[in-house]
Amino acid sequence: MKMLLTLRTVHSARICSRRLLASSAAEEASKIVTPNNQSQLEINGGTYATDSWTNVTPKILTHLGMNKHLQQDHPLSIIRQRIVNYFYAAYRNQRGNPLFSVYDKLNPVVTVQQNFDNLLIPSDHVSRQKSDCYYINEQHLLRAHTTAHQVELISGGLDNFLVVGEVYRRDEIDSTHYPVFHQADAVRLVTKDKLFERNPGLELFEETWTGSIANPKRILPSSKFMDQTKQPCHTLEAVKLMEHEMKHVLVGLTKDLFGPRIKYRWVDTYFPFTQPSWELEIYFKDNWLEVLGCGIMRHEILQHAGVHQSIGYAFGLGLERLAMILFDIPDIRLFWSNDSGFLSQFSEQDLQKLTKYKPISHYPQCTNDLSFWLPPDVEVNEGFSPNDFYDLVRSVAGDVVEQISLVDKFKHPKTGKSSVCFRIVYRHMERTMTQAEVNEIHKNIADASVEQFNVQIR
Ligand code: FA5
Ligand code: MG
Fold this sequence. Notes:
Layout: H1 2-11, H2 25-29, E1 40-43, E2 46-49, H3 58-61, H4 75-90, E3 101-103, E4 109-111, H5 112-115, E5 135-137, E6 140-142, H6 150-155, E7 160-168, E8 180-191, H7 192-195, H8 236-258, E9 264-271, E10 274-284, E11 287-297, H9 299-304, E12 310-318, H10 319-327, H11 340-343, E13 366-373, E14 379-380, E15 383-384, H12 386-397, E16 401-411, E17 418-426, H13 435-453, E18 456-457
Parallel strand pairs: 3-7, 14-15
Antiparallel strand pairs: 1-2, 4-6, 5-6, 7-8, 8-12, 9-10, 10-11, 11-12, 13-17, 13-18, 16-17
Helix pairs in contact: 4-8, 4-10, 12-13
The structure holds adenosine-5'-[phenylalaninyl-phosphate] (FA5) and magnesium ion.
Magnesium ion binds next to strand 11.
């Protein structure tokens, strides 16, 4: 279970990061070859001019439209349906119809405004960095979270909805990390009449609050200065009732998925778009594992979307993480497999009956190291970003790379040049690879590194 722990530590620094980082020289240096060095990219029917921000790779773009979360009998589709059905049942209107609507085919190409600005993510927040996102150009990127669609849907008049889709984040490679994974996000807005149905004297907003927020797009200080009790505009009663409802529903979902005896805990956290904010963790195989982030929506976001008389909660969760536990799927890359030996194991006939994954067979790994000198004056994270190297490896070798790790860094005392060593573990999901075959791929990675990063192989 070490893997799952790693996964939590690494990812707690993403969208919810407390670290604020100025852009570094590493960003300037990250240049990934765009498909065929085009100056324009055609993506999902849109045409985008490339610029110095462009870092999407052809390999990453192949994931658009795969819609694994909608593929019949796919484990991600089964999880999606379980979540949707739970919400359909949990919230109904007077006629007995589901209150929530579901958006699961929204275009993953979004603007910087949708992914960050609309959600009040500070302009120097670490999650905006080129080294963390797949940018199409300075204004467009592949969404890094499904929360990117929140404001457009609220502006369109919706008040109870779920968004499901794949998200894209630049990352290292191992059995629990893949640069494309799936999220489900939800928003629920309620008015005073609804929230205080049984306590009509209570108010959503503080009497002393003027109704306007002086500087709504101001950059909030980091979390330790953020009041985890409530936003200044809200009354404590409103926040507490919303918190109670949200936590009740999310614990209900967790029990629906993992059984009534699942151990869980709430952990205070920080997101730029919610206040207060929490993460829900479940106890699984001797470790606490984060399954979702949630909170009371920042009122400025609602105001910008034209909603003035409601309070809302929102959450976002990862589908792979749930599916890996529920189906006992050991490797995140399996979700992209087209092997019938994998796909035929799951069925959505009976959504309550989840079958455990049975490994088809075990194929041996092949491990090769690659060491090179960085160009003069370039160092790790100062002119050379390991994430750029991971992308290059993925572009050249595809899914036969199981894991890459930076095993050694070293600075020559005389020349001042830096050397790095990466360990690449190769393993095919469906067959044994020969050493000759691995060597050839490894050589191609070395050649591409020389070309792209101007390094010298040792
Ligand atoms: C977010 O993405 C926020 N947008 C969630 C949110 C929405 C908070 C609305 C508040 C309101 P975070 O980066 O922590 O936060 O990811 C949310 C969830 O996605 C995690 O709890 C986890 O379940 C899943 N997740 C994140 N990174 C990965 C990953 N690399 N692999 C698998 N699942 C991941
Ligand atoms: Mg998180």
